[in-house]
Amino acid sequence: MKKSAQKNLDSKSKKIASFDPNGPALSSANLFGLPFSENESDIVIVPVPWEATVSYGGGTAKGPDVIFEASMQVDLFHPEFPDLWKRGIFMHKVSDTLAKKSKDARKSAEKIIDALSEGKSVSKDSDLKQRLAKVNASSLEMINEVHTTCKELLQQGKLVGLVGGDHSTPLGFIRALAEKYKSFGILQIDAHMDLRKAYEGFTWSHASIMYNALQLDQVKKLVQLGIRDFCKEEADFAEANRKRISVFTYADVAHRRFEGVTWRKQCEAIIDALPEQVYISFDIDGLDPKLCPNTGTPVAGGFEFHEITYLLSMLAKSKKKIIGFDLNEVSPGKDDWDGNVGARMLFHLCGVLAASQKK
Predict the structure, then answer these.
(1) How many C-beta atoms lie closer than 10 Å to residue 325's C-beta?
(2) Nearest-angstrom CA–CA distance, 49 and 276
(3) Which of 61, 65, 189, 310 would bridge 49 by S-S if both were Cys, CB 3.0 to 4.6 A apart?
(4) Contact indicator for 111, 131 with CB cutoff of 8 Å
């Protein structure tokens, strides 16, 4: 073992011995009130304050901040993962530069979206064409920055999670995983399919994340869960690629339950549809909107909190290996409710990520 690694291990052991997991979070602490540095932490969370292409409600760029703040109220004893906190969970500082780029790109995107709603053609307006090019270029810069950061962390042997921002944010992370793993699947928990090609002209739209992810040959399977709002283009794309895409709409899940099929049985089918290595992409609007009322595009229906944690725990206990995750579209409201729900889901995601590595 290198001296630097041994030094980090020794420092971490001392902090574990002296830290009180039952006490209040200190203002100087990192995510979940933990005292560990990045080097001392097994799990590293990459925050991406980005929402350039959101097409309805805004605010998701503040998602990493509100989750971080709410995490200080999460008790560290998790019955399923009692020693999770000892692994160390660290969140990078939110990038002010990235947040500013998002805000600048968002101004141009709003001009384009407004013009489209008025029936105007972007291709016939030089100003709108320039704005579209700017948004696409800025979004690609974000993707490349995320890719670089996540690739470095994976090379260090870290377990990596990402917190957005809108749902366009994890593409760089998924690309980094595609360089590490020859094949894997994506479990997408979401109200939307996100299979549109360049939605509203934005190549890297939040509504195109899964279309773009599927351009990677290493992504062998996409399992979509909770879907309840999609267009014909997306339905046709999923049908044309049905060997690669499995869709469990929320209506189908609910109807099976009404007919006596237990949630456990349905979870088994969802997990069976996934390959050996799994990336979790979690749009918070996959949950019932009462749990995330301020998310960008809420849709009636959706899962209860513990229905999803049950599924994720079953996945961690299966023969599958979770290789990373993202949590997106958490947006602040007048209180910290959305951040509170997001922080607690993030803690569970960290738990299943760590637990699945023991296979």
Answers:
(1) 25
(2) 31
(3) 61
(4) yes
pLDDT above 80 for 1: no
Task: State both tokens at 166.
Answer: 């809108």
Q: Amino acid identity, residue 338?
A: D
Would you give the DSSP letter of residue 94? P
DSSP three-state, residue 43: strand
Q: Which of 203, 204, 196 is nearest to 231 (CA)?
A: 196
Per-domain boundaries in the chain = 3-358
Token pair, residue 173, equals: 């992370």
Q: Cα-flanking dihedrals φ and ψ of residue 351, to 5°? A: -65, -45
160: nearest Cα among 207, 91, 261: 91
Per the CB < 8 A criterion, the answer to whether 219 and 186 are in contact is yes
Nearest to 60 by CA among 343, 294, 341, 302: 294
Please give the structure tokens belonging to residue 134. 């700017």
Q: In what order do the strands lie in the sheet with 277-283?
A: 89-91, 43-48, 159-164, 321-328, 277-283, 184-189, 219-227, 245-249
| pLDDT band of 28, cuts 50, 70, 90 | confident
279 three-class SS: strand
| 209: helix, strand or coil | helix
- What would the two tokens of residue 5 be? 């690694």
Asked whether the predicted pLDDT for residue 31 surpasses 70, the reply is yes
CB 342 within 8 A of CB 293: no
pLDDT range class, residue 180, cuts 50, 70, 90 = very high
CA nearest neighbour of 234 among 273, 188, 182, 269:
188
Domain topology for 3-358: Arginase; Chain A (3.40.800)
The CA distance from 137 to 204, in Å, is 9
Q: What is the mean pLDDT of the chain?
A: 95
Helices (H) and strands (E) in the chain, counts: 12, 8
Distance between CA atoms of 321 and 177, rounded to whole angstroms?
A: 13
